[in-house]
Design a protein that fits this description.
With 192 residues, chain A is mainly alpha-helical. Chain A has eight helices and three strands, in the order H-H-H-E-H-H-H-H-E-H-E. Helix content of chain A is 36%, strand content 5%. Chain A has a two-stranded antiparallel ribbon with strand order 1-2. Classes of the chains: A mainly alpha (192), B alpha+beta (476).
Amino acid sequence: MFEYWTSKLCRPAIAVAILPFGLLLAASAANAEGFGFGTTPTAAEIAAIDIDVMPDGRGLPPGSGTVAQGKALYEQNCVACHGENLEGVAATGGAALIGGRGSIGTPKTKKTVESYWPYASTLYDYVKRAMPFTAPGSLKDDEIYALSAYILNRANIIGENDVMNADTLAKVQMPNKDGFISDARPDVHNYR
Amino acid sequence: MTMRTKDTLDYPDLTEFDENIRDTVQGMADAERRAIAAPTQETEDCPCKDGMFPQQDRRSFLLSAAAGAAAAGLLPKVAHAEAPAGAFEFPVPDDPTKVQGRLTNDDGGYGSRSQFESAARWRFPTKTKESSWTMTPLADSQGIITPSGLHFERHHGGIPTIDPDKHTLIVHGMADKPKKYTMADLKRFPSTSRINFIECSGNGLTEFKAPYLKTVQGTHGLTSTSEWTGVPLSTILSEVGVQDGAAWILAEGADAAVMTRSVPLDKAWGDAMLAYAQNGEAIRPEQGYPLRLVLPGYEGNTHIKWLRRLEISDKPFMTREETSKYTDVLDTGKARQFSFDMEAKSVITFPSGEMKLPGAGFYEITGLAWSGRGTIRQVEVTTDGGKTWNIAALQAPVLPICHTRFRFPWRWDGNPALIASRCIDETGYVQPTIADINKVRGVNGHPKFASIYHLNGIMAWQVGADGSVANAAHQV
């Protein structure tokens, strides 16, 4: 879908060319070897904050979780804002996580993990970085797999006995996986 | 100037919508209603009339306490005790030429605004105050720069408090030489400054289907302009050595939402900046202190605040903020993704909603125009509902990807008048009507408002025979 980005190899522009001449030499001299500021981060320093997960599964950590484990964790950590039936709780602003399948683009558009999210990786990634709201980033990797399993099961996307891990989560086919297109703007063509 | 036109404000009925939608939409109206009512209450309730200053002694005490605290290196917490946000309340002499004024540098060395100025951001009443947003008071705006304290906000996990001495930026992924930078490291690089607007892609979302909010702050207040200073991101990319095949870069914040967006590498090599300063001083905490990514012309949420990490990759990361949110549902059921550009847009800020003109006569219509695709070439103003359009004067400086102030002299004859502006940017793109936008995108992206993001249509205001000004979106 976004192949046109990946096919474009980007090379550094000669940024110094637009500087006043007096500065040009100095900047060029620095650029020839680089400025060299900063340090090389250790592998551990990178790993500590490199938490993103991509649709193809890159970034998914070891570990696993089941639907049953996820149900218990959900009731502990999520139910207050997202509701017993994952329907959302208006009073807390917690979004509905399931339902609305097929509603996108109709007058009853309802965006949920089930109806709208194109990749299961996003669910894992988002829970890991930002949930639960009152203690963000507090869940262990196994717990996030379990919660993902529970939510995806309640959304009728995976079976009750399916286990989520780095391999299975990346293979989950979300109902709206083909629901996105690239930006077509400018879409009103009244140029002068 | 922002006089109320009537005692009660009517907002559309919402009974047909479910609880979630109703709550949110109703909350917006409530917040605007409170904001409109606030100045009136202040003057009505204030006992300080006819030169009486009943709280003078207490204020003096607070001020001396503040000076003492400042001297001791502690910040006073008294700024908001009596005065509007950002101001201190001082006694007002009958004749300022007959008494000495306040002591020099008695403000602790950092100034405040006049106690008579109350323009303030107001918060969109989301259910939590951590994930919320505030609007810039455009009705009171002058020139093109937004004061840092009035720059609109959008937070997804509150405003983090970050010690700049401990903050680092790690750049890694498809890089030959991954790097970790302290703030001191970043400030050693050659710097650049640029004056750019940042606009939230949700700016105006309430107006897609029909007029909803009353004021220009409510309908257009999610755009602000600052001078940003920092390091060109291209400098950093050159330093780390981007590998062949790389095409995207993930920007990640150090807030509780660990907010992330994927940015095309083209943009990163272009005019992207790692900004540490705003309007001549360190970036405000709510704008990303100590470090923010600035992507001129891109929708606001991509300008990742509290930036802690950049990961270079071959593919976009498909984070929540570029799939579940900030995507544009069309009537086909498909949603547009990576809708980065903020298209050309303008709005009249005077006269605008809930103001009241005192009578027929001369007024200078003024407002702002901006485009994420470059410089504003022309702004046109109508005072007859779009039958005729007149070219407005553009006030220098006219800069690319920046608020541009326009002015148009108008002699109001006292009859009802429908006024509006439209702009043309350097690409020749003409700001469309809202109807034109809905025609191509559809009206089913949101049950109440038709769509959520990227409304840049023409905004109209109705001036009544009594001088009152009201939201007339969709009428031009």
